[in-house]
Structures are given as structure tokens and as C-alpha cells.
Design goal:
Layout: H1 15-27, E1 35-40, E2 46-50, E3 53-59, E4 75-81, E5 85-91, E6 96-101, E7 123-127, H2 134-144, E8 146-153, E9 169-175, E10 186-190, H3 202-217
Antiparallel strand pairs: 1-2, 2-3, 3-4, 5-6, 6-7, 8-9, 9-10
């Protein structure tokens, strides 16, 4: 992965891996935008952060791995829209990038334009070698996809700011697909840790809050 030194964010990324990434995105009709950062992974794959998507390439089962790219290993690619990542971050001690995807729930009006993401587990991770700028880009892109994010309490009882997210309520997020600037805002409802969707009134609060915030922030209504 150190061969083929190129200018900018692509520096050091093997041409074969770059082409493989582009071909995978093209086959799924995704427009990633500019490549911003990349890092090799502990399982001999590669993680690429672009303006519009996070991509993880793993050595295909039964194919040669390692860093001898004369063998041209075949990669299996996963591509995630930044707006699909609810939260995440980088653990420097283990050199691990972790993230949690939004859970889909049709009754709350949430849709997922990336069908293959629906099959992915909610929590994912990748161990990086020489992470470089990738963790910073990860944080920046997730933040850039947020249009609005509000905690809506189940009751109007006042709480101390530091305790707010421990109270029953929902977190409503309006997110934009950075790979498709003209796409409609995608709306999500999630609950803080320790709060269950089985809490009486939570689902109704989520549905009503999404309708209200969509009316306030979404030009398409």
C-alpha cells in the first residue's frame, strides 16, 4: 500500500485498490465525491473516507491477502453514507474505528436509500493501521451530514442539562446524504442509552416529533 505515491489524500494508495473502489461505487451508482483520507486495515484491507461515503474493502474469501499486490487481491466492498451513521469515533488505544448505524423502523417514517445497509449489523468496527487523518475526517463528515438534532423529553419536567439525555425521551435527527446534495432530508428517531422503545408514549412522541421538525426544517415537508 506504500507504492504509487500520489499527491494529496490518495498518496500511497495502490492504483489497483483505487480502481477497485471506484468500480464498486460505479456498480452501485454511488457518487462518492473527493477522496479525503484512507488507511490500511488490520485484516489486509483498506478503509477509505470520501466526501460522500465511508468505504471498507476486505480481502474476498478464498483470495490471497497480504501486501504483495502483484497477486492483485480481490476486495469485497461495503459503502456507508455518512448520514446513516448515528454515532461513532476512534479508539486510539486499540486503533479501532467504531460506529453505530440507525435502526430502521417503518412506522416512524424512516427510509434507507441504501438497501444493502439494512442488512448490516447496527454496530460495526474496523481496526486501522497508520490511521493518519482518517479519524478526523470521519468525525467531520458525520457532523457535516447533520441538519438538525434535538432531544425531545417525554414530559415537560425540567431537568439539569447534564442529566437531560438520561430522562425518557427521543433524539430526532435530520440528516443529509453528502453524496447526493439534492436528496431529501432523511429523518431518524433514536432513544438515549437506558431508555427503551417499549416505554409508554415513546413511539408516539417520536412520530409526532418527526412530523413537527420535518415541517420546520424540511423544504419538501
Amino acid at each position: 500500500m506504500i507504492a504509487n505515491f500520489l499527491a494529496g489524500a490518495r498518496r500511497g494508495l495502490d492504483n489497483h485498490l483505487h480502481r477497485s473502489w471506484q468500480e464498486s461505487l460505479a456498480s452501485q451508482r454511488r457518487a462518492p465525491g473527493r477522496l479525503l483520507a484512507w488507511a490500511p486495515t488490520a485484516d489486509e484491507g483498506v478503509c477509505i473516507a470520501a466526501n460522500g461515503v465511508l468505504s471498507i474493502g476486505s480481502v474476498a474469501a478464498g483470495r490471497p491477502g497480504g501486501h504483495d499486490y502483484q497477486e492483485r487481491p480481490s476486495l469485497d466492498w461495503r459503502h456507508l453514507g455518512w448520514h446513516r451513521i448515528e454515532r461513532g469515533g476512534f479508539d486510539a488505544d486499540s486503533s479501532t474505528l467504531r460506529w453505530t448505524l440507525y435502526a430502521d423502523s417503518d412506522q416512524l417514517g424512516r427510509t434507507d436509500p441504501y438497501a444493502d445497509d439494512r442488512l448490516a449489523p447496527a454496530e460495526q468496527l474496523v481496526k486501522l493501521q497508520r490511521p493518519g487523518r482518517l479519524p478526523l475526517v470521519f468525525r467531520d463528515r458525520v457532523g457535516a451530514s447533520i441538519i438538525v438534532e434535538q432531544f425531545i423529553p417525554l414530559t415537560d419536567r425540567p431537568t439539569a442539562p447534564g442529566r437531560r439525555l438520561r430522562e425518557p425521551g427521543v433524539i430526532i435527527s435530520g440528516r443529509r446524504d453528502l453524496a447526493a446534495p439534492d436528496a431529501r432530508i432523511e429523518w431518524h428517531a433514536s432513544v438515549p442509552q437506558g431508555i427503551s422503545w417499549n416505554t409508554p408514549g415513546i413511539e408516539e412522541l417520536a412520530a409526532e416529533s418527526i412530523r413537527r421538525l420535518r415541517g420546520e426544517y424540511d423544504p419538501h415537508g
